[in-house]
Specification:
- The protein has helices spanning 2-14, 18-41, 52-58, 60-86, 92-107, 109-118, 124-150, 162-186, 190-204, 217-222.
- It contains ten helices and no strands.
- It has one domain.
- It is mostly helical.
- The two termini are 29 Å apart.
Length: 224
Amino acid sequence: MRQENQLLTKKKEIGMPLGRLETLSDAVFGVVIAFLVTLINDAPLQSSPGNLLQGIMDIKHLFLAYFITFILLSMYWWHHHLIFLYLRKSDTSFMWINMIFLLWIAFIPFPTNLLITYLKSPDQEVAILIYGGIHIICGFFLYCLWFYATHNHCLVVAHMPHRVIIKMKQLLLLNIGGYVLAIFISFLWMPLALMVFAGIVILNFIPYYKEAHEIEMNKVSGGG
């Protein structure tokens, strides 16, 4: 009986090799980011001969939606990279949380397409509600990855500073709050809501916690 329990525990902790899991994640991010530009390529460009510049200016909001989504995806990828930087191992539960997170990351082009299609139309509030809702879900599962990995230091290095864990949690929760705020603002003034989405990214690339690079990959692999 004791051996069976030990075997079950060992199976639970097997998970997937970190390198393979991170490679899969990077591939998903790469495909989604590359696919975004096709949404712009398919955008209708209505211009009369000799008036191409005006036609491009008429769809400038499409480029704005593309730009915001691109940098939001870059932010998710960066945080995902930081989480894996601190990991010393994986397990099955972490693997599946990561897969669910990637599921929603891969879904982002759909709400982005809605935003591009219906921005400046009577349905723009619904479009940004779906768009913001998907980002709330992505932010939530990114937080779940960090929470699970750092709970009792179960997957991260034992000497990881507690302040780094707390500050990352605060930042990830602040992102989710920003998405909720942007959705509410969209019903008042859409341009400001888009500015809030962009502001979330700016906030995340400010060095909020300077300890982010204290633990290098060689230390992580050898950490207890």
